[in-house]
Queue: 3 jobs
Job 1
Amino acid sequence: MSLCLNGQIDQIAGDWLIVPVCEQDDWRKPLVTLDQATGGLIGRLTNDDFTPKLGMALALRGVSGAAVRRLVLVGLGQEESLTPGGADRALRSAFRGITDRPDQHVAVWLGAVSPDRQALLAEAAATAAVVGSMGQDLYRTERVRYPLGRLDFAATDLGESTTKAIEQGTILGESINLTRELVNRSPQEVTPVGFTRRAEQVAAELGLTIQVFDQPRLEAERMRSLLAVARGSVEPPRMVVLEYRGGAADQAPLALVGKGVTFDSGGLSLKPTDGMLTMKCDMAGAATVLGAMSAIARLRLPVNVVALMGLVENMPSGSAFKLGEILTARNGVTIEVLNTDAEGRLVLADVLSYAVDSGVSRIIDLATLTGACVVALGEDVTGAFTNDQDWCNELVAAAKSAGEDLWQLPMFDLYDDLIKGEVGDIKNTGGRWGGAITAAKFLERFVGETPWVHLDIAGPSFASSARAYRDAGATGCMVKTLVEVARRSAHAG
Ligand code: BES
Ligand code: MN
Ligand code: ZN
């Protein structure tokens, strides 16, 4: 669908031409050909009309003199400080603005950055095109946003690496959209079994090894903590284990672990309507892991990765697990149930201990785990928690480059007291204060010595309203960061 064209800017045809520009003494300079062809259109723009600050955009319609009649100027900020994440976000706004009708032919001009940044920009633009043109139209009879008809990339001196970057950016975008679609789908479709079916499709398409643990298998694994959460639902639980082997045969894999509560009613500690309304999003961790896994496999990164997804529905019923119950988790730790709405940690506990026993080298888990994390960091920022600072630093660096906001919270020993059990080893809530941290402290009991980072995505994975650069609903956050982590560990060897 995308083509690379060598040519002059005024000869690029299409419904829209997107022109990313960087801040410099005179940002108009790289656009002199366009300015001349359009009779001085660019030169007439004042700083009130447009400045190339990162994220600024200006759409111009009815342009004459060039092959294209509509332009979007997109600010990228200072070229030296341009990151893949910054470029992606700026360009998503541009694509969101022009995909309100079907079959648009869009071209992106790559000629306003230096040749060594062309690939970075091309990858970001490809991702932005795929993600920005996909809205929340799964169940609408009339769409709001449409996929592009055709996407071209153009410059006067296209680099060799640009074609590859476009391919990679497209894969990233499609993987983010896979995560978004799974989260946005109705919870009647995306049950544990429904999610598993989708994972099986992905595995078949990409040639990944897949293992599906059904109820008897989970019982045989003594995953009683996960099973307790599933007990109140008519939907049977699953654990899905996907494996990608792109690295050396003797290299222990990186584990990506996802919370997949396909609907969180709270169980017997039932949520009020407002709190329950968006709880189909409670499998976003698992969906993020699946999206990242599909990108890592399609990019053929030279790493070994195993994805583990714990899938249950949390419902109240006559068979639901109860407050005051004592559960024995897979690793033997006993857990007092103080609140059935703190179910995510119960699911992850057993999946994490399974991951550790299967001999993984490092773990990242992703979970819409606590409202407390949203209170602490706001709706846009992922909380990070770790037992290994070096490993966490790698993640922080990857997130920075991917342009995803992540902030580490402390894991001081004093928090351990808050989850100490009265009659069992630990309890599943730590009281009112520091709820995101006590939840992480709970998880820490199941990862042993394995370097581990827990990412609480309760805020950023599902958006209550749209922004210039994204639709409301599922965001696909952290897919890019996970892929970046895998890319970096591939380089590290
Ligand atoms: N799935 C929720 C957390 C959540 C809240 C996700 C808001 C997305 C948006 C989780 O299972 C939960 O209910 N957590 C409780 C824990 C409490 C009972 C200790 C919470 O945050 O209130
Ligand atoms: Mn809950
Ligand atoms: Zn939950």
Job 2
Amino acid sequence: MPIVQTKYTADPSPLVIGDTLFLYTSHDSSPDEIKDPNERSSAGFFMYDWLLWSTTDMANWTAHGAVASLTDFSWRTRDNGAWAIQTVKRNGKYYLYAPLHGHGIGVLVSDSPYGPFKDPLGEPLVWQREHWEDIDPTVYIDDDGQAYMYWGNPNTYWVMLNDDMISVKGEIHKLDYHLDHYQEGPWLYKRNGHYYLAYATTCCPEALGYAMSDSPKGPWKSKGYIMRPTNRDRGNHPGICDYKGHSYVFGQNYDVMHLETFVHHERRSVSATEITYNADGTIQEVPYWLDQQPLKQLQPLNPYRRVEAETMAWGYGLNIVGVGNTCITDVNDGEYIRVRGVDFGDKGAKSYAMTAAAKGATTVTLRLDSQDGPVVGVLTVKETGSVDRFRQFTTKVKGAAGLHDLYLCFDKASGDIRLDWWQFK
Ligand code: FUB
């Protein structure tokens, strides 16, 4: 199942910085997030901002909220259309490349992966005024320091970037050949001396294809599918990286929406799976997301340090608020947070504390290994007077030792609740 359930996410852009895998995504609105109330049951794209998630174990993901939005580009003409981005790091700065429908591709810059991102140009980085094909930018900085940007649907374009990463070097090139099944969503990278251009294949249903080359300028040779088309999906979009000795492909599907409806809406969700490279650099095909095993957890989670409440493997029905200090909200009876692979150690935990604010209250039952598993503690979050007034609630814990999945199960929930962070002792 998709790695995030608290928001609809699409167009995954992974970026590994040190110990952490950051994942920038676009953000399909849920019905209540659509700005025009008359459009709330429409099937189309309603995309206003870009979200950030992070992990250190590939099993639990932490939400960081919307780190950039269309409003960061003062020259944009549309309020909808925050489509696929990629963020890359160079010389301590983070460059976020974004399509601005009908206005080319822009770039935002930040000193931190968490933002804030600012527009250094006040105008597009590239803009081919004669068509609307300037979408889905991907940027790769080669070993010699030369950066390349590819993009486009249904044609593929590329250009070199200057070292400042916010201006182009030379002219825009259009591939004068069509990569097999190429539709959109290119993802450019290099691995073991081979250059790769992965992409979403011919719509619809889109799948994941790729091409290889000896040069970032091509020529590219199509190599087939990473994931074949299936009627269970419609749109797809690759993001590929190596992390802690494993290789991953990210993509997207409608499988969280399908928990509610099979009527088509653009409410997508990002999934990921491990990929394996053959000796010649080609990539072994992987089955459709739902036919895969869950991602292997790379290291257990330490519950004796501060854990953000928005860190989870599963949290369907819950929602995220805030940027910077992000919290869990929209808590209802029967919902739960699953945190995978929590290492309580041999001695086990004695107490549990959660920092929360509430114009209301909820009970949080701590269970091991399943939603119905053994209870190790029960916490009550009580009214704090305001959703901005946080206080710590504590409870005793018994029976939590060793390695377990932790379930925070909610009931007797009322009012507006914000869950900030928790910690065992
Ligand atoms: O998310 C909007 C668009 O859908 C992207 O730009 C495409 O790659 C496709 O995923």
Job 3
Amino acid sequence: MTRVPVRDDLSTLEGYHSPQVTVDVRLNTNEAPVGPPMAFREALAVEMSRIDWNRYPDRAATTLRTAIGALHGVGPDQIFVANGSNEVLQTVLLTFAGPGRTVATFEPTYQLHGHIARITGATVVEGERAADFSIDMSEVRRVVSQSRPHVTFLCSPNNPTGGVDAPSVVRDVLALAPGLLVVDEAYGQFAGWSAVGLIDEKTPLVVSRTFSKTWSMAASRLGYLVGPRWLVAELDKVVLPYHLDTVKQIAGTLAVRFLDEMNERVRAIVAERERVMSALRVLELDVFDSGANFVLFRPRNMGGRAVWQGLLDHSVLIRDCSSWPRLDDCLRVTIGTPAEDDRFLSAITEVLS
Ligand code: PMP
């Protein structure tokens, strides 16, 4: 059979790769190290038995949106929900990017921002971050004035570098960017502040969040954004009808009832992150500051790829960023349980010696 050609603009597109390998200690995809509380699982099992399986889900997901909105002090009309924050971002880009439009990113950052934007047919303009991977305002000024982007991305804490943008940075980018500013806060709960407080009806700003990390629900694929009402209404027109299944709507609504447990887990991960960073700093490594549940580092006297392989030989899998642009020799480790982190720290100490 003859292959049918894909769209011309997709012919050179590469897929997003994140290898899944079977190992003892998996610290490569920034998931939560433990599952949700047992009481959540039990409540979910009860609710599952009551589902009207012959009926479509609530198309507006009102109960879930109300529950998420309450977390941020806003109503359901300011919350858009989808299958993971990746689908949230895809819906934003289908609505505001697309052919003939421009999207700005500041690299290195989360690869999916540019990747999804290209799939919608938009032109992606890549600005550069400063040497310490913070946002360089003169570069923002250059990119924004040259390209007049329809959508500009920030990522705070930034994946894979870990840094948090200061409130003044988000405000300054907002003042400069002519179109929509998206602040991806997939790791927002691990940082000291959130841009959600800057959202109002007159400001072209949205903040995206996920249940995959803090809420220990990566298996369920649930993400959302907080934004102005008019913008959420536009996204609701673009997303497929009934895109969010009943199981997920129930799971998300139940999860937010466990806010105290989740906050406790965040506190434990942040404490563990500080412990891991201190331990890494005494090794032959450059360690970048992190406000997330992962840490980026660069071995000083060994190639990053060799260190990654050495860890894999100890059955510890972390993320190899060493061949990514601007990230020569860099590796990223997700904070795990104290036992997993100990395994990682003793393995890397051996590998480096
Ligand atoms: N944004 C960032 C910065 C991420 O790191 C991730 C997960 N790797 C996502 C969004 C997507 O998260 P999900 O689709 O699981 O909600």
